[in-house]
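Continued from yesterday's entry.
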Amino acid sequence: MSGAGFLLTVNFFIAQCFCMFFLAVSARSRNRAAARWFAGCFAVASLSAIFELFVAYVYPPKLWAILAFASMLGGMFMLRIGIGQLYGLKTNRTLLAAVFCAFVALDYMIYDLPRGTLQHALPYQMPFAVALGMSAWAAYRARVTSFVDRALVVLLAVTSAHFMVKAFAAVFAGSGNTAKDYIASQFALVSQSMGAVLIVTVGLMLLCVLVLEIVADEKVNSEVDPLSGLLNRRGFDNRVDALMAGKGPHSIVLCDLDHFKSVNDTYGHQGGDAAIRAFGEMLQAAAPHGALVARIGGEEFMLFLPFAGKDAAMLFAHALRATRSVSPIPGLPPTARVTASFGVTEIGQSEPLRFAMRRADDALYAAKNAGRDCVREAEPPAVVLEVVKRAN
C-alpha cells in the first residue's frame, strides 16, 4: 500500500472515531440534534477514503471517483446542517440538496478533463470550499461571542480556503493523469496529510463547543433548585460576592412559609411541592432586575436586593406578604391559603454577609413569634454586635 493509501485508511478510522465521540456526546448535550448531524457528517465523509481506494483497485474507477467526491461533499453539507442546529439558525435543506446535486453533476462533467490542470482542479475543489464556506458563514452569522466559537469560525474559513489552495497544488505537484493514478501521486500524500490534520482539528473544535455547553449546563443544574426553579444555596453563594462588591446599600429578605408541616400533612407532599413551586414563581416574578432569589432550605427562601436600602426592602417584603396571603395555589383547593413570614435587614457598611443573614434570620423568627404572616425588620448591626460582645 502506498503512503497515500495508508493515510486514507488512517483518515477513515479517525473519522469513525469522531463519529462515535459525537454520538456519545449527543446523549448529554442539549444540542443533541447538532451532535448527531456532526456524527453523520464524519461517518459519511469517511466513506470517501474507501471509495478513493476502490478507484485504484476496483473497476469501474469513474463510479468510485464520483462516489468519493459525493460522500465527502455530502458530509460537508451535513456539517452545515449541524452548524445550523448548533446555533439555532434556519437551514434551507431543499436548497442545500439542490446545490449538492449540482456539484455532483459538475464533478461528473469534468471527470474526463485532463488531470493536473486548472480546468479540472478548480471546479473539483471549489464545491468543497463552498460547502465549508457556508458553514463558516453560518457560524459567523450566529454572532457567537465565546473564544471557542470564534475559533471555530476561523478554522472553518481556513479549511474552506485550503481547498482552493489544493487546486493550485494539484497543478504544481501533479495529481496523476487519471483518477487511478491519484493514489500513487505526490499530491495525494500531501492532500491526505492535510486532510488528517483538518479532520482532527475540526472534530476537536466541534467537540470542544459541545462539551463546554455540557459543562455549563451541568454547572447551572448544580446551582438551581429543581422544584422552585430558583437558585439553591450554592448558586446563591457563587453569585452574591460579585453583587456585594458594588457600592451599597444592599438588603436581604428572608422568607419562610407558615405552618408548612400542616400543608404536607393535609394535602400530602404533592401539595407541599405545589406551595413551594408557587411561592418560588411569585418571588421570581416580583424580584427586581439584578436581584438574587434562592431557596436555601425546605420552605425557606432568600432574596438579595442590590442597591436597595431597608425602607425599599421593607416595602418589597410587605408587598410579597400581601400577595402570598391572598393568592391561591395551583393544585390546592381554592379556599386553601399558605402565608409566609419575612425578616428584612440592610447590610451594614463593611459588615460580613453572614452577620447580616444572622440578623435577618433573627427578624424572621421575630415574625414567627409575632403570629406569622407578617414582616419584621432586623436590629441594626451595632446592636447585634453589642449583644455578642456582652455574651462573650
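--- second protein ---
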Amino acid sequence: MELASQRPVSQISVAELADRAGVTRATFYNRYSTPLELLIQVLGADLDRGHRLEDERARRGHSAAELLRLTTAEVGNHVERFRVIYRLSLDDPADSGVYEALVRHFSEYTLAFMARSDRSALPDANPQVIAQFLAHGFAGAIKAWLQDPSVTKDDMIDAAVACAPAWWASGHLPRTS
C-alpha cells in the first residue's frame, strides 16, 4: 500500500515489492502474479469490511434507504482511505485494472444483493446487465469525485443514492442469514 501510494502500481516491480515485504520473489509469485493482483486483494478486503458493517446494520433494523446511504458512505470512506492510490490509477492508463476491479466488485455485490432480495421487487431484466449498469455508474460517480476537486464525498454519496434504482431502497431488504 505504501508503494502504491507513491506511484502507479504498474510502475512497481515484483522485486521491489518482495524486497520491501521481506520475502523472496518466488514467495510473492506463489500467491500473486502481479503487484496489481495483490493491491486489488487488499482494496477488496477493505470494501468487504464495509459490507459486513451493512449486514450488522440490517440486523439492527436499519431501513433499506438508510442502509443504501450508510453503505455508500462506507464506500466513500474506503476511497478516502486509499484516495492517493485511486487517483494515481486514474491518471495512468496502464493502471486501469484498479478501476476495473472496482467495477467488478460493485457488479458482484449487486448480483449478490439481487440474489438475496425479494425477487418480486426486482426488474424483469437480465441481472448481469443490471449489475454492470449499476457498477459502472457507481464507479463513474467515484471517478467524477476523484477527478474534480470541487466535488465532495457528500456530493458523490448524494448522487449515487439519488440514482439508485427505486427497488434498491424501497424497503425490499435483502434476506439476512
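The radius of gyration is 18 Å. The domain at 36-169 is CATH 1.10.357.10 (Tetracycline Repressor; domain 2). Will compare against the first tomorrow.
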